[in-house]
Specification:
Diacylglycerol_kinase_cat_dom, Rossmann fold, Lipid_Phosphate_FormReg, single chain, Tumour Suppressor Smad4, NAD/diacylglycerol_kinase_sf, 316 residues, DAGKc domain-containing protein, globular, 10-stranded antiparallel beta sheet, 35% strand, ATP-dependent diacylglycerol kinase activity
Length: 316
């Protein structure tokens, strides 16, 4: 078996010793080439090159959700492109702070245990088809958002660029501070939801909204945060939209999310299985895709494609 290992050396949970150990372990069982990323978008470039070169049976990513997102987009091209006829199997060894997609697939959060799990799955020939979300011209793995969550991601990226670790405590503190800072000036936008019957539901005054391809929405350390418990990698999209930034009205909802109670509130629109979603804003607002800040947008369209990706993972 010939495999390419793409490593993000800057990912939160990666260390030189750990990277060497897992590369040695994989290399003892297969013909392994190792590439390290050096800049944003590099993992996508490496995946594209591996696909055009051919000859790889598997591409393994060791990094966070952003690295996995880049590799998936490199392997599949844009959603408008035809699906590649020959596609290497995708393996994931978690290396980020949350690793939402890998954990949603049932991949062990510990990199060394995940390596052993991956070897066993590769040698057994296991693979699993999963749905992918679409955000305009890119694929997404687990969630996208417009408004406050994207602002949090933007602030956290700035802190990481200054050398501060992306710890659960820092994420929680940044979320609270950012919410309080923007609760009065957050521009409202319109959300249009297309349900499974083709009916359109328009939410004209939305303060923040998420679109999900699977659950959970994220992890806070070891704690699961589920905004749309019924959304899965084999179904439609989940949508979670709030009509207010009021602390008094959102605090009970946040508490329900933290204790994994059913997330509902009068100001909340939630559906765990829809066909499509569109965001329209009168001014450009920040957007995040799979935990990466991607700039500001006026509009963004979300959809999904069934069985778009083959990934090496335990059965659903």
């Amino acid at each position: 078996m010939r495999a390419l290992l793409i490593v993000n050396p800057y990912a939160t949970a990666t260390t030189p010793a750990g990277r060497d150990t897992l590369a040695h372990t994989l290399g003892a069982r297969m013909d392994l080439t190792v590439e390290q990323t050096t800049h944003r978008g590099h993992a996508e470039e490496l995946a594209q090159r591996a696909l055009s070169d051919g000859g790889y049976d598997a591409i393994v990513v060791h990094g966070g959700d952003g690295s996995v997102n880049e590799v998936v987009n490199g392997l599949l091209g844009t959603p408008a492109d035809p699906k590649p006829t020959a596609q290497p199997r995708l393996g994931i060894i978690p290396g980020g702070s949350a690793n939402v997609f890998a954990r949603a697939l049932g991949i062990d959060a510990d990199p060394l245990l995940a390596t052993a799990q991956l070897i066993e799955l590769l040698e057994s020939g296991a693979q699993r088809g999963v749905n992918l979300g679409i955000a305009d011209d890119r694929w997404f793995l687990f969630n996208c958002g417009m408004g406050i969550d994207a602002r949090v991601v933007e602030v956290m990226e700035a802190k990481r660029n200054k050398g501060k670790a992306a710890t659960p405590g820092r994420y929680l503190f940044t979320t609270v501070v950012t919410f309080l800072r923007h609760r009065a000036d957050q521009e409202r936008f319109e959300v249009t939801v297309t349900d499974r019957d083709g009916q359109h539901h328009v939410l004209p005054e939305t303060s923040f909204a998420f679109v999900l391809n699977t659950t959970p929405w994220t992890y806070l350390g070891g704690k699961i945060i589920e905004t749309n418990p019924g959304t899965s990698l084999s179904g439609g999209l989940g949508v979670f939209a709030s009509s207010t930034m009021s602390v008094a009205r959102n605090l009970p909802l946040a508490t329900r999310l933290l204790v994994r109670a059913d997330p509902h509130a009068r100001h909340l629109f939630r559906d765990d299985d829809v066909e499509a979603v569109r965001f329209d804003s009168p001014v450009a607002l920040p957007v995040q895709i799979d935990g990466d800040y991607v700039g500001e947008r006026l509009t963004i369209d979300f959809g999904y494609r069934a069985d778009a990706l083959s990934v090496v993972a335990p059965p659903a």
